[in-house]
Design a protein that fits this description.
Elements (H helix, E strand, L loop, with lengths): L1 H11 L5 H10 L18 H4 L8 E4 L3 H6 L16 H10 L4 E5 L2 H4 L4 H8 L6 E4 L5 H9 L4 E5 L6 H13 L3 E6 L2 H7 L8 E3 L11 H6 L7 H7 L5 H9 L15 E4 L5 H14 L5 E4 L6 H5 L8 E6 L8 E6 L5 H13 L3 E6 L6 H17 L4 H11 L5 H8 L1 H14 L12 H7 L13 E4 L5 E4 L3 H6 L12 H22 L5 H12 L8 H8 L1 H11 L10 H9 L8
Parallel strand pairs: 1-2, 2-3, 3-4, 4-5, 5-6, 7-8, 8-9, 10-11
Antiparallel strand pairs: 9-10, 12-13
Length: 588
């Protein structure tokens, strides 16, 4: 049934003019505020919960034959009324009975709803906020919702399995002044939507979760979602289970910005999308005290870009953690142009209090660690496109000393995250990073719904063994997904050549970062690679490894692979070092 609905809804708007709808949306009256705080769920019996299809006291104007067959005529608090009543009459009845808002189901084909009902209710002088309840799957439908006079809209997480698509529609709604609500059906979907900004209400439609409204009661039910690494740390003896219990009890979950007024530091960690991050940062800043520090955990987006929407950019900087957070000790503290010394010092002190090792870097796309990592990952994708076996690439780099190969790393990070990060880096450095990210192996897999470990399929397939432990398996069907982007057959390449082609671009980008002053010293850069990426510590660091090759050795490798493109072109610093016969480090 859901598949038929989604097919219908995507096809429904295919012939509409998005530009015209966008103009109508932008010209419509400004939306009303839609329930600034979550409303408590009324005391209902289990049977009533089964038909209470709205959050809080939102009256629902809809004609849903299946439910109406069960409840011939229900009270307004139960969300369903008989079809013999006029829709405007139903809405007025809700308004007269204390409803906080009106939701209108507008799916005409499957649930007999009508989009024009929104306008009819508004034209009748009913001033309650209006929610459009439908399977909203496209940008055009968001514009259509705004143009029809709605103040809020409902997104259904199950209908938008792509996190990027969900975030894009959510961000567009915010841009238009609409309040986006999200309906979820599973605990996993709850975990996905909690990162979305401006989230006032989340309709939950699942008996296993036991409620239709996200309240603090729901957050208690979400405690099992706390990463299992917390328990692993307790089992390892780093601290006791009593310590773990105290740490978990210190977590105060909230769905209201009312609790933010007394905090000292807030770290934003929503989806890696500039519009989404800007929306949540601007909204959060309004709730903070004047002396509070706001930080972003962005991995690639420039801090100055995010600071552009803030009223106090001097109280804002980056605070980038590395995955897996419980294992990687490094935290990048990114200083934007407006970041004050006090702000940077506060975040450094906070990182130290968390037991992390902070390094202060200057702002640029990717900052330090991900900027240096980006050419490494691009070199991996170039090798895959040439037909090099994925498993052979991973094995070569793991034998060289990396804790995991580039394909596994991509899956762990998430192919959606890797794809969006690649887009950011391509826009920032088009001279050496191609902009056709959709045609890269990661782009092709992402477009086909392969997100890595998070959904069990990426460059590898992930499934549980008989003991419940996750195992990584190579899936030959991945090659069929990658086939449109492959330029060669199954090419065999020596492990030594794989290491050279993977590591040389990293060294070159590290040199660029030193030239640009992103980081001050080779020592700091090497420390960041070891603590943030898991660079093999026995090799001393990336630039120690480069110095072991000698300046003339690096230049020879650049000549060997120069035909592959600007990714392998040496920097001026490297050329100068070769002429002077010196390395990145002074002689010992």
């Amino acid at each position: 049934m859901l598949g038929r609905i989604l097919e219908h809804k995507r096809g429904e708007v295919a012939g509409l003019d998005e530009a015209g709808l966008r103009g109508a949306a932008e010209g419509a009256a400004r939306p009303r505020a839609f329930l600034d705080q979550p409303t408590p769920l009324p005391s209902l019996s289990e049977r009533e919960r089964g038909i209470y299809v709205s959050s809080g006291l939102v009256g629902t104007v809809q004609q849903w034959p299946r439910l109406i067959a069960e409840v011939k005529r229900a009270s307004p608090s139960r969300g369903v009324l008989a079809p013999d009543m006029d829709e405007v009459e139903i809405a007025r009845l809700y308004a007269d009975n204390g409803a906080a808002a009106i939701s209108v189901l507008t799916d005409e084909k499957f649930f007999l709803g009508k989009l024009r009902t929104l306008r009819a209710i508004r034209d009748a002088g009913i001033t309650l906020p209006l929610l459009r309840k439908d399977f909203i799957l496209t940008r055009t439908q968001v514009y259509e919702t705004r143009a029809a006079g709605a103040d809020a809209m409902l997104l259904i997480a199950a209908a938008l399995p792509d996190d990027g698509e969900l975030a894009e529609l959510h961000a567009l709604a915010l841009d238009l002044g609409l309040t986006p609500l999200v309906e979820v059906h599973t605990a996993a979907e709850v975990e996905r939507v909690l990162v979305l900004p401006g989230l006032r209400l989340v309709g939950i439609n699942n008996r296993d979760l036991g409620t239709f409204n996200v309240t603090l009661e729901t957050t208690e039910r979400l405690r099992p979602l706390i990463p299992p690494e917390v328990a692993v740390v307790a089992e390892s003896g780093i601290f006791t289970r009593a310590d773990m219990a105290r740490a978990l009890s210190a977590i105060q979950a909230t769905f209201s910005y009312g609790d933010f007024g007394t905090v000292d530091v807030v770290v934003e960690a929503v989806v890696e999308n500039p519009k989404v991050k800007q929306a949540v940062l601007a909204e959060t800043e309004q709730a903070l005290g004047e002396r509070a520090v706001l930080a972003s955990n962005t991995s690639t987006i420039p801090i100055d870009t995010l600071a552009g929407v803030l009223k106090r950019p001097e109280r804002f900087c980056g605070m980038h953690f590395f995955n897996p957070v419980h294992r990687m000790p490094l935290v990048e503290v990114i200083r934007g142009k407006a970041s004050s010394d006090e702000t940077v010092a506060t975040v450094v002190a906070y990182a130290l209090k968390l037991g992390k090792t902070p390094i202060v870097v200057r702002d640029c796309p990717g900052f330090l660690v991900n900027r240096v990592l980006s050419p490494y990952m691009l070199a991996f994708q170039l090798l895959v496109r040439e037909g090099a076996p994925i498993e052979a690439l991973d094995q070569a780099m793991e034998r060289w000393g990396w804790p995991m190969g580039p394909a596994t790393l991509s899956d762990v990070v998430g192919l959606d995250t890797a794809f969006h990060a690649g887009q950011v880096m391509a826009q920032a450095f088009p001279d050496r990073i191609p902009g056709d990210s959709a045609k890269t192996p990661t782009g092709l897999l992402f477009a086909a719904g392969y997100f890595g470990q998070k959904n069990g399929k990426g460059y590898y397939r992930y499934e549980k063994d008989k003991r419940g432990r996750e195992q990584k398996l190579f899936d030959p069907t991945v090659l069929q997904v990658l086939k449109p982007g492959l330029k060669g057959g199954s090419e065999q390449i020596a492990p030594e050549a794989i290491v050279e082609r993977m590591m040389l671009p990293m060294v070159i980008e590290a040199s660029r970062c030193l030239e640009a002053g992103i980081v001050d010293t080779a020592t700091e850069l090497d420390m960041s690679m070891v603590m943030g990426l898991g660079f093999p510590p026995f090799r001393g660091g990336l630039l120690r490894f480069a110095d072991a090759l000698k300046p003339e050795g690096l230049m020879k490798l650049c000549d060997t692979y120069g035909a592959l493109g600007p990714l392998y072109a040496p920097t001026q610093q490297m050329k100068d070092n070769a002429k002077a016969g010196k390395g990145f480090y002074p002689p010992m």
